[in-house]
């Protein structure tokens, strides 16, 4: 059986490569390529263009359908979509301020709430006020359990079941604030 011209050409090329390179060199280059390939996904990339755009016809949650924007001392106030606890406004504080005698926790959880007035979603930072005993609110609608878009406990930044007073001088929970951070995009 005779060798074809393609076989002879292939053999000559491979023998030439074998003369000019070593197995160690090949393994070294392969290792560099593998290390660079695994680091490639870590490079900063703008993924905004690849993300699906939010659909304006997305179904509203029960809270969003019933939310109001006139009374911040009620649980159905639009900013309270993910609050869990006593509203600080009912205890002498405000939407984003702790009552006298309590201090804001150094950590917070976040929620995205729909404002019924403008139809836009906003990022809300919920922060517990700590340092004094729990507030006994005078209003019947001051104890809230908002679970809109709450994530499981293993995603603590969006879970409201945790008392967020850790890192403060006292772990005593008093009430919760709902500060508007900005427009959610």
Question: How would you describe this structure to a colleague?
Answer:
The chain is α+β, with helices and mostly antiparallel strands and 185 residues long. The protein folds into two domains: 5-39, no CATH class; 62-183, Methylamine/Aralkylamine dehydrogenase light chain (Electron Transport Ethylamine Dehydrogenase). Helix content is 21%, strand content 19%. Strands 2, 3, 4 and 6 form a four-stranded antiparallel β-sheet that branches. A two-stranded antiparallel sheet has the order 1-5. It is elongated and about 100 Å long. It is an enzyme of class 1 (oxidoreductase). Methylamine dehydrogenase carries out the oxidation of methylamine. Electrons are passed from methylamine dehydrogenase to amicyanin. Keywords: Disulfide bond, Electron transport, Oxidoreductase, Periplasm, Signal, Transport, TTQ. Pathway: One-carbon metabolism; methylamine degradation; formaldehyde from methylamine: step 1/1.
β-strand number: 6
What oligomeric state do the depicted chains represent?
single chain
Order of helices and strands: HHHEEEEEE
| Most strands sheet | 4 strands, antiparallel
Net shape: elongated
Measured distance between first and last alpha carbons: 70 Å
In percent, how helical is the residue content? 10-25%
User: How would you name the CATH homologous superfamily of the largest domain?
Assistant: Methylamine/Aralkylamine dehydrogenase light chain
The CATH level-2 architecture of the largest domain is identified as Sandwich
Overall pLDDT confidence = 80
Number of helices: 3
User: How many separate structural domains?
Assistant: 2
Radius of gyration, taken over Cα atoms and rounded to an integer in Å: 29 Å
Unreliable stretches covering 5 or more consecutive residues: none
Structural class: alpha+beta
Strand content: 15-25%
């Amino acid at each position: 059986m005779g060798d074809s011209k393609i076989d002879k050409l292939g053999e000559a090329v491979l023998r030439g490569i074998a003369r000019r390179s070593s197995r160690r060199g090949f393994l070294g280059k392969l290792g560099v390529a593998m290390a660079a390939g695994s680091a490639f996904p870590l490079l900063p990339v703008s993924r905004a263009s690849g993300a699906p755009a939010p659909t304006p016809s997305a179904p509203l949650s029960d809270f969003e359908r019933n939310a109001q924007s006139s009374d911040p001392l009620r649980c159905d106030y639009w900013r309270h979509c993910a609050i869990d606890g006593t509203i600080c406004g009912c205890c002498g504080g405000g939407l984003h301020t702790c009552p006298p005698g309590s201090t804001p926790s150094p950590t917070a959880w976040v929620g995205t709430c729909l404002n019924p007035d403008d139809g836009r979603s906003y990022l809300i930072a919920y922060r517990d006020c700590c340092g004094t005993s729990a507030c006994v609110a005078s209003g019947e609608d001051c104890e809230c359990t908002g679970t809109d878009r709450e994530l499981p406990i293993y995603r603590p930044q969006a879970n409201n079941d945790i008392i967020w007073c850790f890192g403060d001088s006292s772990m005593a929970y008093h009430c919760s604030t709902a500060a508007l951070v900005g427009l959610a995009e």
